[in-house]
Amino acid sequence: MPKKKAPPKEATADRIRDAADELFCRVGYDAVSVRDIADRAGVNKALVFYHFTSKADLFERVLERYYEAHRRALASAFEAEGSPRERMHRMIDAYLDFMAENARYAVLVQQQISNPETHPLVEKNLAPLYRWIEHAISEVAPHAGPGGPRQLFVTFSGLVINYFTYAPMLARVWDRDPLGAPMLEERRRHVHWIVDLLLDDIERGAP
Amino acid sequence: MPKKKAPPKEATADRIRDAADELFCRVGYDAVSVRDIADRAGVNKALVFYHFTSKADLFERVLERYYEAHRRALASAFEAEGSPRERMHRMIDAYLDFMAENARYAVLVQQQISNPETHPLVEKNLAPLYRWIEHAISEVAPHAGPGGPRQLFVTFSGLVINYFTYAPMLARVWDRDPLGAPMLEERRRHVHWIVDLLLDDIERGAP
DNA sequence: TAGCAATTTGACCGTTCGGTCAATCCGGGC
DNA sequence: GCCCGGATTGACCGAACGGTCAAATTGCTA
Fold this sequence. Notes:
The structure is a homodimer of 207-residue chains.
Chain A (H helix, E strand, L loop, with lengths): L8 H19 L6 H8 L3 H7 L3 H25 L4 H18 L1 H12 L4 H20 L10 H25 L7 H23 L4
Helix pairs in contact in A: 1-2, 1-4, 1-6, 2-3, 4-5, 4-7, 5-6, 5-8, 5-9, 6-8, 7-8
Chain A binds a DNA duplex (30 and 30 nucleotides) through helix 3.
């Protein structure tokens, strides 16, 4: 019975990557040391460099998993049947669900986008995803200009992701947990309300 | 003739703070060393610790200047005369102008908000500002719920600030400079278009 | 010109960083 | 029992970090 020769071996690399995931998301890339990651994973620091070539490589692996999950969530929501407007609403729901499940990802992606040092990674992973979203939006808002897909992409994306990046501060300003079910539902209804208002006005021939 | 005894002395601390400003905004707090700051300011590293008690203190000074300018820009725009809707539009214009002039501030503020380590600073500087904005919004959208000031605050704020945090990536995805005058104007019209649509629907008694 | 205080400097400190390496551990096939 | 290759370890490296300090410089007043 030729068993897999590495039942716990893959699990070790996974544990390291999971530990890195949580720490990177919580305090950012620079503020986390490889020692921190190894400690949290319960392994020797040198083992991190056995399974990953460098700290930057480990970071890329963490990001790639998120990017791929992000892309799959949006694509499956948008590519199913229904009117363009229905598919847009479904895509926004999928984006909200994905962010609610991976709240820490919002911080990582904002860090990535705004840091010029990591732009090769952004170009490889995020830019194609965002080109695809902009294309999807152009199905419901075909015209260029202030109401066109270029601006709507930033707006729709910000409506969702900004809520999660603001969440730590909102928890202090409000008296309720912004990531709890009631507030998430309120946000969801808010975003859909806006999307419908914008699409209504665009169908009406504006602006 | 009793001159000021420090014509270039204040300028030294200012040069250090300006150098720190640019570097912190460009690559973030952790990725900048005190040596980098001193080199860019053209002074000895020890001089940084003569004028500021620590690297963290220097960072706070940089942030405070932005927070204060941010607060003044919004307050003067909103507190002048006009209907609530006019004042809301003016406030958004002031926010856009402020961000266009201090594009790097958007990155710093997002970093601050999403990093739990710096929450004492956020509580002291940002939270009061954001409480004030939410109160201002409640003048034009008094009702709670999905169309209420709580959600509108996140939305309006994100409509503006997210454009600037995304700018480095948008410059790669689009073929035009998102911070150039034409695209900034397109964004401005886009945001005002949305604000009017939302306020129209709220006045109509929704949602 | 002497003296004093504020400013500026270079040399230095202990710590932590990312990364390397030889040595050890361990389970499966002969 | 032995060996072998992948997995794991502790010890170690040079570099860079934030921060300190005594000494030197500067500019003003007497």
